[in-house]
From TrEMBL:
The keyword Kinase does not apply. The keyword Transit peptide does not apply. InterPro entries: YczE/YyaS-like. It comes from the Bacteria. Keywords: Membrane, Transmembrane, Transmembrane helix. It comes from Paenibacillus bovis. PANTHER family: INTEGRAL MEMBRANE PROTEIN, INTEGRAL MEMBRANE PROTEIN-RELATED. The lineage of its organism: Bacteria, Bacillati, Bacillota, Bacilli, Bacillales. This is Membrane protein YczE. The chain crosses the membrane at residues 14-33, 53-73, 78-98, 110-132, 167-191. It holds the Pfam family DUF6198.
Length: 220
């Protein structure tokens, strides 16, 4: 749980993590507004929340609480203040920005408008993920799953572990009537290079050289 100590001794990381989660919530809301699908985990949560009649933000907290139990048992080193912020507040960030977008701009009606909305979501979401991950003060319970799987089965690369968890979430999303579309595919396969761009040109520069020394400690 070093992430708690790191955040307390380095407020810059705490601020960057908070800003990252805010932008991540904004990006997820933009994907939702496009109507072309979200990242697999968010899409699954939205589909299950709609089916159960529970508000998205509350359902996300309940699901994260269940996943956190696994993280607490098997992945304590991945727990930090960023874990709590992401698990508890991300859903409210998404709801807040989605309501604003819906009331101010409305849902895009034409396909080209939806595609542009997805493209904007890609950039915003990638920026948020970059800041949140690079701050290195804790990992979200869902993100921890593929890391635990990587540690348990090191002969399989992290990429395939992440693909497995994402594909499973996409399947659940589809079964419960969620949207699987362009946004889902882009989230699964297209965010990496953009996240890397923001890592190099924004997040790591904000954190300074210390991040470069720590990079090998936590590969996501």
């Amino acid at each position: 749980m070093r992430g708690f100590i790191t955040a307390l001794t380095d407020p810059k990381r705490l601020i960057i993590m908070l800003v990252g989660n805010i932008f991540l919530g904004m990006g997820i809301s933009i994907f939702k507004l496009s109507g072309l699908g979200n990242d697999p985990f968010s899409g699954m949560v939205m589909a299950l929340a709609d089916t159960s009649g529970i508000a998205y933000a509350l359902f996300l907290i309940l699901l994260n609480l269940s996943l956190f139990m696994v993280q607490l048992i098997a992945g304590r080193r991945f727990i930090g203040i960023g874990t709590i912020v992401n698990a508890v507040f991300l859903g409210y960030f998404v709801t807040f920005f989605y309501d604003i977008g819906l009331n101010v701009l409305g849902e895009p009606q034409l396909l080209w408008q939806r595609v542009i909305t997805v493209a904007i979501g890609v950039v915003v979401c990638s920026f948020g993920v970059s800041l949140y991950q690079t701050s290195n003060v804790g990992i979200a319970p869902y993100d921890c799953l593929s890391l635990l799987m990587r540690d348990r089965f090191p002969q399989v690369s992290y990429f395939w572990h992440r693909m497995f968890t994402d594909a499973f979430c996409a399947l659940i999303c589809f079964i419960f009537g969620g949207i699987i579309g362009l946004g889902t595919l882009v989230s699964m396969f297209g965010l990496g290079p953009i996240i890397h761009f923001f890592n190099v040109h924004v997040a790591e520069k904000l954190l300074g050289e210390r991040r470069l020394e720590e990079k090998a400690e936590l590969e996501i």
